[in-house]
Amino acid sequence: MPELPEVENVKNTLNQFLPGKVIKDVKIYWENIIKYPETEEFILRLNGQKFEQVYRRGKFLIFYLNEDALVSHLRMEGKYGLFDAGEPADKHNHVIFSFTDGTELRYRDVRKFGTMHVFPKGTEESHPPLSTLGVEPLSDSLTAGLLKTLFAKTKRNVKAVLLDQTIIAGLGNIYVDEVLFQAKIHPETSANELSLHRLKKLKTAITEILSESVKHGGSTIRSYTNSMGEAGGFQLKLFVYGRKSEACRICGTEIERMVVAGRGTHICRSCQK
């Protein structure tokens, strides 16, 4: 599933070509993707609107039009791409936005897990799914003090808490493994037992790793590409995720894979005691 860095790069590439395009028509071939409003109203509301800017909130893309906000979650396999209207459409293109300039924005989703909501612009943060999201990990709001306050409210292990989008929005399995490794924290440690000193290290790791991954285009583990079809490169810099039985880049200890919070988890037992 694309995490914050991958979604950030999709946002950046969409902003290179989408602003100013006017919707002539919307075709929907898999209605379950449209969560709000009903499909017919979704189409009627968007027709004639102009794309202004694309933003990101957690793992969500927010397409701002002149009247509404389109909130999109890519889930496992969702992808956007710009095409000429005459190009053949893939059978996995489930939502197609046709523009007045003869181009189309196509949403492709092999697994059909993606979601789209449309709300009046300015109200999108007041409704689910955005209203349930926690703090942005790359914002100034994320501090060690805030983590201390948030973590004090739960007895869950730190991996489960970091994966919880209602606490911190945007972190997924790849980057949780990486930030815990950099902060030298074992994923099964109870979140409410972490000292302020260790939370400062955790906050620094979150900021540094996510920022570095954004700079390298995100991580292409299976099929992620941005909206230009370009793969990310940060997977080459991962220290633990996906490196089971390989030597730790820091101490040489063999990387282990275990299950924590129901997710495959990679650790170095020497670095993360």
Could you walk me through the main structural features you see in this protein, from its secondary elements to its overall organization?
- The chain has 6 helices and 11 strands.
- It is α+β, with helices and mostly antiparallel strands and 273 residues long.
- The strands form 3 sheets. It has a 5-stranded mixed β-sheet with strand order 2-9-5-4-3, covered by helices on one side.
- A hairpin with a 3-residue loop joins strand 7 and strand 8.
- The two termini are 28 Å apart.
- About 2% of the residues have low confidence.
Per CATH, the superfamily of the largest domain is MutM-like, N-terminal
Order of strands across the main sheet? 2-9-5-4-3
Main beta sheet: 5 strands, mixed
- Our count of domains comes out at 2
Tally of separate helices:
6
| N-to-C series of helices and strands | HEEHEEEEEEEHHHHEE
Structural class of the secondary elements? Answer: alpha+beta
Query: Poorly predicted ranges (pLDDT <50, ≥5 residues)?
Result: 220-224
Distance between the termini: 28 Å
Sheet-strand content, in percent, reads 15-25%
C-alpha-based Rg, rounded = 20 Å
Overall geometry comes to: elongated
Would you tell me the overall average pLDDT? 93
CATH topology of the largest domain: N-terminal domain of MutM-like DNA repair proteins
Record field, number of beta strands:
11
Binned, the helix content reads 10-25%
Query: What is the CATH class designation of the largest domain?
Result: Alpha Beta
User: What is the level-2 CATH architecture name of the largest domain?
Assistant: Alpha-Beta Barrel
